[in-house]
Q: What sequence folds into this?
């Protein structure tokens, strides 16, 4: 049995993630202090907001070759075997399995698949707002974050220098489809 949750301006329906107004970013550390930041620039996703937000779902696909750290040589290295191996594994996918209340936000549990390995992850999510966009379309904004273990997902290269945990942050804008 789900608990009913109230979110100001909430609109149930199917929403498509707007890639032009969304950021999928990551932060990894090497040697405990050196930061590698980057984004994935090619992705898509759908958010189905149920009448009760706790019954909602999300699915997304990230194209790994779209990795961008702002340094072409590093990007090339990260796209090879031992890291993302983008030729063999062209996508990272996420499919939610449940939504829970967490204070004034939510926890979205789901299956993250990368390098042919699927792991359960939990996204800490905040609904930032629902409003009409400049052209009158219904727009929703969310922030989310999680940490993943590189080793658990099959990243083997650089493990002596790169910390095992990578922070993934999402700034999501979605447009209502129905």
A:
């Amino acid at each position: 049995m789900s608990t009913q949750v109230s979110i100001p301006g909430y609109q149930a329906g199917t929403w498509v993630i707007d890639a032009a107004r969304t950021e999928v970013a990551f932060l990894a550390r090497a040697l405990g202090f050196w930061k590698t930041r980057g984004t994935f620039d090619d992705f898509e996703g759908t958010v189905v907001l149920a009448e009760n937000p706790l019954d909602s779902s999300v699915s997304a696909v990230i194209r790994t070759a779209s990795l961008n750290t702002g340094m072409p040589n590093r990007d090339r290295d990260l796209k090879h075997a031992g890291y993302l191996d983008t030729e063999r594994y062209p996508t990272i996918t996420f499919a939610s399995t449940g939504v829970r209340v967490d204070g004034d936000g939510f926890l979205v549990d789901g299956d993250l698949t990368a390098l042919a390995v699927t792991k359960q992850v939990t996204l800490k999510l905040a609904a930032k707002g629902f409003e009409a966009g400049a052209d009158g379309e219904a727009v929703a904004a969310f922030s989310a974050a999680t940490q993943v273990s590189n080793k658990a997902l099959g990243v083997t290269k650089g493990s002596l220098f790169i910390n095992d945990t990578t922070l993934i942050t999402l700034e999501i804008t979605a447009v209502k489809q129905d």
About this structure: The two ends are 27 Å apart (CA to CA). The mean pLDDT is 91.
